[in-house]
Automatic annotation (TrEMBL):
Keyword Coiled coil: yes
Cofactor: Mg(2+); Mn(2+)
UniProt: a divalent metal cation binding residues: 78-79, 170
UniProt keyword annotations, A-Z: Coiled coil, Cytoplasm, Endonuclease, Hydrolase, Manganese, Metal-binding, Nuclease
Stretches assigned to coiled coil: 32-59
Compartment(s): Cytoplasm
Function of the molecule: Endonuclease that specifically degrades the RNA of RNA-DNA hybrids.
Protein name: Ribonuclease HII
Gene behind this protein: rnhB
Family to which this protein belongs: Belongs to the RNase HII family.
Catalytic activity field: Endonucleolytic cleavage to 5'-phosphomonoester
Co-factor binding details: Manganese or magnesium. Binds 1 divalent metal ion per monomer in the absence of substrate. May bind a second metal ion after substrate binding.
One Gene Ontology MF term: manganese ion binding
Length: 255
């Protein structure tokens, strides 16, 4: 039998997604360095895939448990934007299908902007329903950031196309007559909450990029309103702008 070239083996490996493929054993017996390097690279890719599959299964445990209790429309709810000095707090409520298999969904803070954008598009395509809630800087100053976050979550819940029968919420309880579970660090433990965190983060970041054009000099396109060095220098040189939260330090001392 004619020996495969290293390039042929590399090309073939791109189509192999299981260790059970009979060709793997044949290639493992090939002593050429290029083949062994290609196999090592392939193995690392498979390990990453297996790790992602295991993480998804682990993050579906709360949804699966709710389904064993008879619940079907299970929504994950999370908010983004408690800490920034400017801009709104944004919440998302996401109902995922039971057979949701999108790998890589995790706490939005653990993902790159590029990965969040990719997952955001897929979540939009696959979700049963997505609701968005937004509370602006004025309301935050009026009722405080905790109450504003809670309000944004409630608005997101009401924005859904369907009424859910179970809520999974990131570290919050909502005043609604629907069974619910509050999970500390829920965006890293529940796939539905993680999906909500990604949706809320992408929407808020894009909004802050728009605000950066309206209010240049604070670096909103880079910091999303958080108190970075660039933002603080902007405050020193320009003072506050319309969307700054006047009850947050150091802004409250500048008003």
């Amino acid at each position: 039998m004619k020996t495969e070239s290293i390039q042929q083996i590399k090309a073939a490996l791109t189509t192999v997604d299981t260790r059970d493929d009979e060709r793997i054993k044949l290639w493992q017996a090939d002593e050429r360095n290029g083949v062994q390097q290609a196999l090592a690279q392939w193995d690392r890719k498979i390990q990453r895939h297996e790790k992602a599959v295991a993480l998804l299964e682990e993050m579906q445990q709360f949804e699966n448990q709710a389904r064993t209790q008879g619940h079907r429309l299970i929504v994950g709810i999370d908010e983004v934007g408690r800490g920034p000095l400017a801009g709104p707090v944004v919440a998302a409520a996401v109902i995922l299908p039971e057979k949701f298999q999108l790998l890589g969904v995790n706490d939005s803070k653990k993902l790159s902007a590029k990965k969040r954008d990719e997952l955001y598009d897929e979540i939009q395509n696959q979700a049963i329903s997505i609701g968005i809630g937004m509370v602006d800087h004025n309301k935050i100053d009026e009722i405080n950031i905790y109450q504003a976050s809670k309000l944004a979550m409630g608005i997101a819940l009401e924005d859904l196309c369907f009424i859910p029968d179970y809520l999974l919420i990131d570290a919050m309880k909502l005043d609604v007559n629907i069974p619910q579970e509050s999970l500390i660090k829920g965006d890293a433990r529940s796939v539905s909450i993680a999906a909500a965190s990604i949706v809320a983060k992408v929407i808020r970041d894009r909004l802050m990029e728009d605000y950066a054009k309206m209010y240049p000099g604070y670096g909103f396109e880079n910091n999303a309103g958080y108190g970075t060095k660039e933002h603080l220098i902007g405050l020193e040189t320009q003072g506050i702008c319309t969307i700054h939260r006047k009850t947050f330090a150091p802004i409250k001392d500048m008003c």
